[in-house]
Design goal:
Layout: E1 8-15, H1 22-31, E2 47-53, E3 56-64, H2 72-79, E4 84-90, H3 94-98, H4 100-110, E5 115-121, H5 133-142, E6 148-150, H6 159-175
Parallel strand pairs: 1-3, 1-4, 4-5, 5-6
Antiparallel strand pairs: 2-3
Bound molecules: guanosine-3'-monophosphate-5'-diphosphate and magnesium ion.
Guanosine-3'-monophosphate-5'-diphosphate binds at residues 16, 18-24, 36, 121-122, 124-125, 152-154.
């Protein structure tokens, strides 16, 4: 339920290649569940959740990129006004880390001043892991991203922390 009268309302984006777990992360964060039966997002419907940081009430509108990728006009709308978000890759597929730079550059161009955290998802798939923390951090550092964190939408590990970390960085920047 939305908090009445938030101090801030932020538009937050989930970016990254297909099947890295963007929709699963949003579902986990917003509803605290993991389901394989959700309808694949095709439109621009945000998910909502509120967070509290230092006594401030922040209403999040979370947009998860999906089918709209190919429609230029929808892409513009998708990025417009975004504060920042999570650029996600799959720890079992190095090619999804290689795509991060492209996502980051597009977001920077279309949502000026937006800030992103790099998220390595599917941390639970330990045996299938193919990206080291070192390689992921190298990408985050090179692009001057806010931070790097590893999550599992399946177990819920670090999902709350990823959004909270993002919220704290956005707030810090606003206060400068
Ligand atoms: P997307 O929105 O980025 O395209 P999805 O990705 O959220 O649709 O997830 C893609 C697939 O990865 C789904 O599998 C989903 O269940 C799985 N997945 C997402 N996050 C995790 C995770 O943290 N751990 C594991 N083990 N799997 C995850 P299916 O089989 O349903 O297509
Ligand atoms: Mg999706």
């Amino acid at each position: 339920m939305a908090i009445s009268d938030p101090d801030y309302t932020w538009k937050i984006l989930l970016l990254g290649d297909g099947f890295v777990g963007k929709t699963s992360l949003v579902n986990r964060y917003v509803r605290n569940t993991f389901t394989k039966e959700y309808l694949h997002t095709i439109g621009m419907e945000p998910s909502f959740r509120d967070m509290k940081i230092k006594g401030l009430k922040i209403a999040l509108q979370i947009f998860d990129i999906a089918g709209q990728k190919s429609f230029q006009r929808l892409r513009e709308m998708f990025y417009r006004g975004a504060r920042g978000g999570l650029i996600t890759f799959d720890l079992t597929r190095p090619e999804t880390l290689a795509s991060v730079e492209g996502w980051y550059k597009e977001a920077h161009k279309k949502a000026k001043g937006s800030q992103f955290i790099l998220v390595g998802n599917k941390h639970d798939l330990t045996d299938q892991r193919e990206v080291s923390e070192h390689d992921a951090r190298e990408v985050a550092d090179k692009l001057k991203m806010l931070d790097y964190i590893e999550t599992s939408a399946l177990t819920g590990e670090h999902v709350e922390s990823a959004f909270m970390m993002l919220g704290k960085y956005i707030l810090k920047k606003m206060k400068r």
